[in-house]
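Homework help board

Subject: predicted structure for assignment chain

Our instructor gave us this sequence and asked us to write out the predicted structure in token form, then describe one feature. I got the tokens but I'm not sure how to describe them. Can anyone check?
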Amino acid sequence: MANIWYPKFKEALLQNAVGVNLADGPTDIRVILVDLADYAYSAAHVMLSDVPAAARVSVTAPLTGRSVSDTGLFDADDSVFPAATGDVCEAMIIYLHTGTEATSRLLLYLDTSPGLPMTPTGVDLTLTWSASGIAQL
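My token output:
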């Protein structure tokens, strides 16, 4: 697999059906670690509820310092997963956090990012995003 924007997010974005601001602002965008032994990417997945709870490793991390360039490059400050525990994670999902899994839209699936795989051991895990940004739309 490769890093990929969820197709249903791109469709909703182009139809102006998503109230999401990828640049820094009031939109709560988070990243979650994923165990691929319990999750397989699907282009049909739309919401966090489509990702089995067993696949979601430990805690989420908010994406702060987000930016979008005029070339469509999405970036953010490095992310910290506090006191992360759980299975080895081989992927991450960036999603719009609403507080409810059924309405938290999946944005981006990442399995070739720096720092993967990660092994949560109960200490803070810092994810250092690539110097060239997270992804381009």
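Reply (TA_rk): Your tokens look well-formed. For the description, you could write something like this. Residues 4-136 form one domain. That's the kind of observation they're looking for.
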